[in-house]
Amino acid sequence: MSSTHTQLLTDDASGALVERRFRLRVVSGPDQGKELELEAGTTMVGTHADNDLVLSDATVSRYHLEIRIRRDGIEVRDLDTTNGTKHGVARVGQVILVGPARLRLGKHTELDIEPIDSGVELDDWPGDRFCEVLGSAPAMKRLFAMLARAATSEATILLSGETGTGKEAIAEAVHQTSPRGKGPFVVVDCGSIPHELIASELFGHARGAFTGAAADKQGLIEAANRGTLFLDEIGELALDLQPQLLRVLDRRQVRRVGETQAIDVDIRVIAATHRDLRAMVRAGRFREDLYYRLAVVAAHVPPLRDRKSDIPVLAACFAERMGRGTFAQSPALLEQLERHDWPGNVRELRNVVERALSLGTAALADLGDGAARPADAPAAAAATAEEPARPAPPSDVLELPFKEAKAALVESFERDYLTALLARHRGNISRAAAEAGIDRNYIHRLVKKYGLEVDRG
Fold first, then answer.
1. Predicted confidence (pLDDT) per residue in 56-105, tens digit
2. Contact, 20 vs 116, CB < 8 A?
3. Plot region of 249 (φ>0 → left; ψ -120 to 50 → alpha; else → beta)
4. What are the start-end ranges of the E strands in 29-156?
């Protein structure tokens, strides 16, 4: 992908999208006051006349520094000089800078790298969708406009938001509208891959690298070459694996487990989390340098309770995609949906629509928060905290084809069973799996499917 002389990023203080250029300025030494704005490609600094920034300090080498703008910062490389380059008190060979910095070249010259930011004007978003993602609430339109602009760049994007808000669908929309749209979109669920397998899954492995490695295996990062790598629930990535991921982001190279040869990869990275990564950085549970590599463009996906005006169109869309008829939205049902707090967000709404299409609106009588039931829901269907009463399968489900009716009832059972199981164990998946006698990874999949909150610790 071609490089430019600007970066797209979000301002830490305001969250606004800005375009950043960089300027070199000599602040001390015989060439004090010289300036140069960085352009695309490589900028050379030294005393030889062929350099882009020519210095007269005799302690600076003929070809001293090579500077290149990356998608996530400035790469500075000292060209094995005699008197070296220092950043702070450390002599550097190669360093990635993500903000303003001062470098000392040789013995007398200090050089500032200064960001120059200008705001990006975003047009009003037309319509109510971004690819397959729906939303007409103002917060969603702002999000669509920002991400559509970011999609045209190579900027790494970090999506934050509660579980079930649709971060994966939004990431795929960014991919589809980017120059990489015809390449692969590879999803890595950092929260569901067992720790002992994630290195092999991410980086791949060589035959014989460990017991059971019967053949060479391409990792998910390598599989995303010339496309987009989506790191879902990046906050769950183990601390000991974060340096390996950071190296991939810095060098755009991956090394399979058991091999010494690195493989070049051309990837765009989008990450997502429901965690507060800044708080995790302060607590020492997430690397600060990795956070800044990921949060070049940081965007928050609002919860459904903050965009309830989107509920009717989302519900109708889900019903249409399921191909099971129309989701009739009576005034009573709309009032019930409006009053619900939607802790599972858009994913919970999708499950609610599916359950209503399969079992009838009576199955929504226990939709939480004490919401009023639709007029056609029998009082006997109201659940109590002590002993929920479940209605018998209505005629709606019995009129479905056998496979669809069975699937609807199984999903209803899975959701209720899992909710009660996790409640007994306060969301601890390991203990819940032990009691149920099923694999914890299967519970992870069900939790994600039904948008349930769990203890990820």
1. 999 999 999 999 988 778 999 999 999 999 999 999 999 988 889 999 99
2. yes
3. alpha
4. 35-37, 42-46, 53-54, 65-70, 73-78, 85-87, 90-91, 94-97, 101-105, 109-119, 129-130, 133-134
